[in-house]
Design goal:
By secondary structure, the chain is an alpha/beta fold. 34% of the residues lie in helices and 21% in strands. Helix 5 runs antiparallel to helix 6. The chain is globular and about 60 Å long.
């Protein structure tokens, strides 16, 4: 689609994907209106602490963002040292000379990644309409409304604490089935969650186990704990370009199927969708060239980890913590290879979205599965 002079591009959703698309269009002089159903940017995250992944490319992710025109005027903490635990509570030190990820805050508060992207968009003249839910999406447009189903959930608490800054991970199916539990602490704020790919109906049990484990292992101390949960949407889209309207971010399924890191893919998919409109280019070809191989590899990795279970996690942690270059080791796990290419058909069959099961057997329930799992994609 070629944008005509004076065409206003409509973007549905003011998350990182939608705002990245808006910024890219506005920098090219294209009028943009962003519609956001919530009253503020990053509404569903509160003050969630998350990791901006930094190992799948040699170039630092912050430099990558700047190279495509996205400001990095948000607070961040380089994640270079932490501790991972396995099912048997063996401690595996995580150390890297360069950041493995950047800890960032999500949500509407000043200094968050969301508020920084919003500020840049507004400075460029983008019109952002909050409390605006589109019933129909005109053309030209980009769809960026976030996850539409629960392929994975992350459930736990936000809290205040006197603990020192740090990050801790536990790979144990008894705390986070087929996923992992994590604890992030930064400047007196903390996030502790169980990230699970199955067992959603027992989320309360897994969260309780996660809290107890971190209390015993690292002395977790929470003040004013506030429950929080969110969903993840993973899939390799066949055609994220219906009717000339590119679909970006988690709505398209663009997220790491293994560990659930999605911000990087979200922002880049927004940039690529905007470029496809500006340059009348093939959006499918653009995203496949940029991160298609990584997504395919992450599906293979997810299938392998789901099959190997706790012993597989221990094997991986032992191997990862005995290399000289951990960042490079992780990057190679996402690189294309003949073996992973051969395993992809098997992995696609083994990894099935849980979205087909929209039931819940809880009583008087407000769990993440009930709030989010039944939404249609």
């Amino acid at each position: 689609m070629t944008l005509g002079e004076g065409n206003v591009v409509t973007i549905a959703g003011a998350g990182p994907a939608g705002l990245s698309a808006a910024i890219t269009l506005a920098r090219a002089g294209q009028p943009v209106v962003v519609h956001e159903a919530q009253a503020e940017v990053g509404h569903r995250f509160g003050a969630d602490l998350q990791g901006l992944e930094n190992w799948t490319t040699e170039e630092d992710v912050l430099a990558v963002m700047r190279s495509v025109g996205l400001n990095t005027d948000f607070r961040y903490l380089p994640g270079m040292r932490g501790v991972a635990y396995d099912h048997w509570r063996n401690a595996w030190p995580i150390e890297s000379e360069l950041p493995l990820f950047y800890l960032v805050e999500r949500g509407p508060r000043p200094g968050s990644l969301d508020s920084a992207l919003l500020a840049q968009a507004l400075e460029l003249g983008v019109e952002v309409r909050f409390n605006s839910r589109l019933k129909t999406i005109p053309s030209p447009a980009i769809r960026a409304v976030g996850p539409r189903a629960a392929d994975a959930i992350a459930v736990g608490y936000h809290f205040e604490t006197d603990m020192d800054d740090g990050f801790w991970v536990i790979c144990d199916d008894e705390l986070a089935p087929r996923g992992y539990a994590y604890l992030l602490v930064w400047e007196g704020q903390g996030t502790v969650k169980s990230c699970m790919f199955t067992g959603f109906k027992q989320e309360k049990r897994y969260v309780e186990r996660t809290i107890r484990a971190f209390e015993e292992l690292v002395g977790l101390k929470m003040r004013d704990p506030r429950p929080h949960g969110g969903v993840g949407n993973f899939r390799i889209p066949v055609q994220p370009f219906p009717d000339g309207r590119p679909v970006v971010g988690e709505q398209a399924g663009f997220q790491d199927t293994l560990w659930g890191f999605g911000m990087r893919h979200a922002m880049m998919s927004g940039v690529l969708a905007a470029r496809s409109l500006l340059e009348d280019d093939d959006y499918n070809a653009l995203w496949r060239r940029e991160f298609g191989a990584q997504m395919e590899t992450s599906v293979v990795n997810r299938a392998l980890f789901s099959m190997l279970g706790n012993r597989g996690y221990r094997w991986f942690l032992r191997k990862a913590t005995n290399v000289d270059d951990l960042r490079g080791f992780l990057r190679r796990q996402y690189g294309p290879s003949l073996l992973r290419k051969l395993l992809l058909p098997w992995a696609r069959r083994r990894y099935r979205s849980v979205r087909k099961d929209r039931s819940c057997d809880h009583v008087d329930c407000s769990c993440v599965w009930c709030r989010c799992g039944g939404e249609l994609a």
